[in-house]
């Protein structure tokens, strides 16, 4: 690769090619790209179908709005954080919670395939992360042989849990 002295892995080469719009990283049925990287800002119809299947509706804690009333939201902002239009960076939110996140400054993180929502200090001073509606994400989580499972946080009361390794990215 021009300008790079060290060899790069095949995975890195695929990521670079996908970012440049040369190849998609993930394909759905009929070779429809599901990870668009930075080549397109808005989530595609195919991505929204995949998000609906994965999230099952609005991921905001306690919300029960079904997928047909939800928007695809960039967890890492497209413009501010150069977020990618990829399934891993997307989450379904109903219009009310989507606007609430943008207006109030909630933070979304996905840790261990669980979606966490951290309120801004003016909403909740302690800013404790709250587990989102994670049922479908948990059902689709890959099983890692030998890994210990601790679901106490996912079942605890809102505001009483803190995900391990929480770094925090501003919602988009």
Automatic annotation (TrEMBL):
Keyword Nuclease on entry: yes
Pfam family of the protein (one): HNH_2
UniProt keywords, alphabetically: Endonuclease, Hydrolase, Nuclease
Domain of life, source organism: Bacteria
InterPro entries: HNH_nuc (IPR003615)
HNH nuclease domain mapped to chain residues: 46-99
GO molecular function: endonuclease activity
Name of the protein: HNH endonuclease
Organism: Orlajensenia leifsoniae
